[in-house]
Specification:
Uracil-DNA Glycosylase, subunit E; 24% helix; 5-stranded mixed β-sheet; 3-stranded antiparallel β-sheet
Length: 216
Amino acid sequence: MTSRRKPEPGAAAGAAGEFPVETHPFEPFLPRDARLLMLGTFPPAPKRWSMPWYYPNFINDMWRIFGLVFFADRLHFVDEAYKTFRLDDLKAFLAQKGVALFDTALRIRRTTGTASDKDLDIIEPADLDGMLRALPECRAVLTAGQLATHVFTEHFAIDARHLAMGDFAEFGFEGRRLRLYRMPSSSRAYPMALERKAEYYRKMFNEIGLLDDASE
């Protein structure tokens, strides 16, 4: 199973102008009874974090999407006063709902120093098989972003060339049938209104049964 590794001591740039290899800073969040595994690519650099957890950039809208879908309130998980997110509330809610989190890359090098997927060189992918084995109730995987989708579909030999935004492709894993959903990126660099992104996520959550007991 994927686990966090300690950064290599004194990791530094090799050739002039080359960025160091980074190891994923967070532990996988894998509630045993999770029905959905959400996978991005890799967290932004720490200077962009508003909290030490997934989707930490305050201008990333993932947790606003969750607020809209489950509570009809984009600010439900947002701490406006401190420009961060309500981490304890998020963890409790995701565990209760059965939503697991990690990324598709375990070790990367940034090619330009930005947080953009297009500027990431994946040195070592995450242990995708290990994560699914650790989640026996999981029946759906969400990949947010083009690179995350590419890594996942290549690993599991899924033909997603014609997979439309918001749709899913079925695949098999050790006797299980699962769905891979292609979702819009929660980054504001992705040109789609927050409310429209939330509609895609709402449809998916409804299809996999996570809205059946939605919080009021």
